Fold Germin-like protein.
Amino acid sequence: MVSSSSSGYGLLFCLLILLLVPFRSHSADPDPLQDFCLANLNATSSVNGFPCKPVSAVTSEDFFFNGLSVEGNTSNVFDAAVTSANVFSFPGLNTQGMSMNRVDFATGGLNAPHSHPRSSEIGVVIKGKLLVGFVTTDNVFHSKVLTVGQMFVIPRGLVHFQRNVGKGKALAFTAFNSHFPGAVVLPTALFASTPPLPNEVLTKAFQVEDQVVNSIRSKFGA
Ligand SMILES: *[C@@H]1O[C@H](CO)[C@@H](O)[C@H](O)[C@H]1NC(C)=O
Ligand SMILES: *[C@@H]1O[C@H](CO)[C@@H](O)[C@H](O)[C@H]1NC(C)=O
C-alpha cells in the first residue's frame, strides 16, 4: 500500500521534473545579455563568442545579410554546396542563438553525412526532392523523401544527410539554434584532416586494407 503522503511527494516530484525540463532544453546557445552584440571578428581577445562592436559604430546594414540570395557553386565531389549565414559571415547574429544555411544540390547532389555539435537543425525544401535522413545514437536510421514546402528536424548532434533524389536541381534552407552550429563532415573529418589520421586507425575502424583508405583520401586531395 502506498500512503497518501508518499504519493503526494511523488506528485510533487513529477511536477518539479515537468517544471525543470523546459529550462534544461530551451536553447542551445546562452541567452543574450543586451539588445544586440555586433561581433567584432577582429578582436584580439576572445570569450565564449565574440566581443561586441561599440554601439556607436553599429549601422542598420549590420542587421541584414544578402549572402543566402546567391546560388552556391556545386562543382565539387559532393555536387552540393552549403552557404552559411552564421556569426562569421553575418556578425549581427552574435549571441542571438540562431543561424541559417542555404544548401544547393546539383542532380544527384549529396550534403554528405555530418553533424552539428552545438545545434539542432530545422529545414524546409524550396526546390526539388530530397531524401533526408539521420541516425540516432542507437544506430536507428530515420529517413523520408521530401518535396517543396515540406520540413524536417535533425536532433542536436546526430549524423545526418540530404540527397537530391529529384530530376533537376534542389534547394533547401536550414536553421539552427546556435549562432555557430559547427559541422563535423564525416568523410572529410576522417579522411582529409590535417595532419591525417593514422592509417591503422582507419583500416581497423572500417575493417579495410590500406589501399582502400588511400583511395578514399585521394578523392579529397589529401
Ligand atoms: C576588421 O578588419 C577589417 C580589415 O582590417 C576591417 O575592414 C573591418 O572594418 C574590421 N571590423 C571591425 C568590426 O573592426
Ligand atoms: C565553381 O567551382 C569550380 C571548382 O572549384 C570552379 O572551377 C568554377 O570556376 C566555379 N564556378 C563559378 C561560377 O564560380
